[in-house]
Amino acid sequence: MKQYLKHPVFQLISETAEEMQKPVYVIGGFVRDLLLNQPSKDIDIVVLGSGIELAKKVAEKIGKHTKAKYFKNFGTAMLRYKDWQIEFVGARKESYRKDSRKPIVEDGTLEDDQKRRDFTINALAINLQKEKYGELIDPFNGIDDLKNKIIRTPLNPDITFSDDPLRMMRAIRFATRLNFFIDTDCFKAIKRNKERIKIVSKERITEELNGIILAPEPSRGFKILLETGLLEIIFPQMVDLQGTEFIDGKGHKDNFYHTLEVLDNVAGKSDNLWLRWAAILHDIAKPQTKIFVPDIGWTFHAHEFKGAKMVPEIFRKMKLPLNEKMRYVKKLVLLHLRPITLVENIVTDSAVRRLLFEAGDDIDDLMMLCKADITSKNQQKIKRYLKNFKLVREKLKDIEEKDKLRNWQPPVSGDVIMKTFNLKPCHKVGIIKNAIREAILDGEINNNYEDAYAFMIKEGEKLGLKMAEGSKDLR
Length: 475
Ligand code: CTP
Hints:
alpha+beta; 15 strands
């Protein structure tokens, strides 16, 4: 650890604070990550004095190109030095009001500052004063909690969580990302204080939720969110997936736990947050579409269509982006059953071509999602699926190579159709364009200009259109 703190940036901060005769410490996530052998480049510095003054002096010493940013209202300052990001703050004592996450702040001792922090593992400090350089200051046994993989608050957890309810989400994020356990008292306090999450902005909640989703095994976090009651408040549609129902001795699987399995499967293959969101939402409309059909059993007819329709609303409520990321998730939810349908049925070229056309560049992600969706416990069934899955992949590859259908545009454009038949933009142009596309996707004609052109002429004739005078091949 001392070795690491030999970096000139720490020496510089230490010397500067010594000149100001102010004790200085590095604290929080940086110390935690250092002890976990995952050193980060985000440093939090606490000084028993003015954080802004210290930051200014450090910036001066580094040189004229370095400037600290100050946030006078908060008494904090930030500066970048090479790839380090360093935050400076004076040690503080905080007290909170009932209706806000914003504390009333006063100067305090180092211990006051450590007490106001969220978890014992985030309250560790390392002394940067010359004579005690590198000494760990751990008043709440954070080191033991790190070793035993425990998330615990330094104070009574009811106070810590009520003061800043976002910390309930942080507790779950750390537990999930680091593979830690939430201490029992702390867990119970989250249950008791869950309603307080409502004073936190949606953006911040979602940021933490995304942090959970990006963990190696995100299901751990969702189970805790469910058990504490937080999920019901922040994402009720997901809680609706929970449970099984039996009629005439026939049950269906618990779609909440199935969804979590799919999510973990995807997480094992990809770090793409949006693919993980598609996994979370792929069956989101199952509760609304569930019907028991005698002799058949439980059906969830058209849940992929209804689910895709729910995506924008869920994204809007959760303040997730309403841009191409949302459209990508929507598309994957809509198409998530398609590859498996190909696997189950005899695969015609035309069905594969259609899927390639609709999925475009996202075909590989769709295949990944679809494979992750196979959570059956029946080994025979899994074997059969996986074998057929391989066939579909091969077929996709063959047809893609042959027809180049990703991001494909039919070879004859609307412009050519209009010029050939001397048309202004009108629905007949659309009819012909559609017919060409369908004919190519169905394999009736080849995917090239000559075939499409000839086909266009025939389609035009069917609509009673005449070729424009002097019209010829317009390539
Ligand atoms: N902190 C806190 N309560 C919060 C947020 C932060 O007590 N709601 C304290 C913790 O001591 C934390 C430090 O402020 O370690 C720095 O916060 P931040 O940079 O947000 O988190 P890190 O712990 O560094 O971890 P991460 O970057 O993964 O969020």
